[in-house]
Predict the structure of Glycolate oxidase subunit GlcE.
Amino acid sequence: MTERAIADRDIAGALCEQVRSAYDARTPLRIVGGDTRAFYGRPVEGQALQMAEHSGIVSYDPVELVVTVRAGTRLSDLQEVLAEKHQMLGFEPPMFGEASTIGGAVATGLSGPRRPWAGAARDFVLGTRIITQEGKLLRFGGEVMKNVAGYDLSRLMAGAQGTLGVLTDISFKVLPIPTATHSLRLTVGLDEALKKLAEPGRKPLPITAAAWHHGELFLRLEGGKSSVSATQASLGGEPLDANFWQELRDHTHAFFACNNGQALWRLSLPPNTAPLALDIPEADIFYDWAGSQRWVKTTLDASTLRDACRAVGGHATCYTPKLQGGAAEPFTPLNAVVGKYHRNLKAELDAHGIFNPGRLYAAF
């Protein structure tokens, strides 16, 4: 796979026309890329706006560490092109399937195991082209990191799930692939593991992924050869297959198979948060992001989980669709103040509610 092997197909004109017609007719649109993240959020009913054909690399400057790509481009194709130049997407986006697109990765705003050390998806977005509610194609941001006045729409689109406009092109800052990497596993209890997971914040260790599950601590070391080798010798442990992190990222690890009416939840918590007082077996909790992200399989109700997270300054998101036993509202309900901002922003950018209506919350 080379940069030229990804055919550049620009169908922005046709997409703008479809959005313009939907706006005039007040027709809801369901924005579809690879449709591999349809489980994430509330179901959307509307006319499909197909993005997969709008694909290709617009520009790529390995020296400046910047790539601009069309939203329908398959994530796997983009990663292959970057790897040829020994570069990568810093936020390590989950794929959830071969058809996964880069537009879907940004729209959901999800990041992989490297997130606490490298940054979130929105941190790597430099600029975008967006189709507005009136069917206009506008550019926001650029190809450099800089401050902006007013709404930073490019980064605002990360995690908005297509509710504020249609992403067509996205410019990213990319990172060099580390020269050395080594993954290892240590047999330790939860208390000791949490202490070890707190150390990277106090010591300059070359850790780029850290997780714990059922008596085992998993670490990924990346950086210069001498630094990785020295840390590996210091920590010890057994070698870990590097595919472990991909399985964790894409939810193909055996842990993510729910049964007996369980739903999969993601608990987002402040760093160094102690185990929550929840009636959940240890084997059904997977600690990721050095403990700040916890995957939980449980039959507990949404209010119990969310109350426990709220008490320590966190929140809970359900990854299991309602029809499969998940929560009716996958995302934590907004308080009055935040809800007001959401409604005002939605009204400004999508006055007729045509973009993925109800995807995040029933009201908008």
Observations:
- The chain has a mean pLDDT of 93.
- Residues 3-176 form a domain with the Uridine Diphospho-n-acetylenolpyruvylglucosamine Reductase; domain 3 fold (CATH 3.30.465.10).
- The first strand starts at residue 29 and ends at 32.
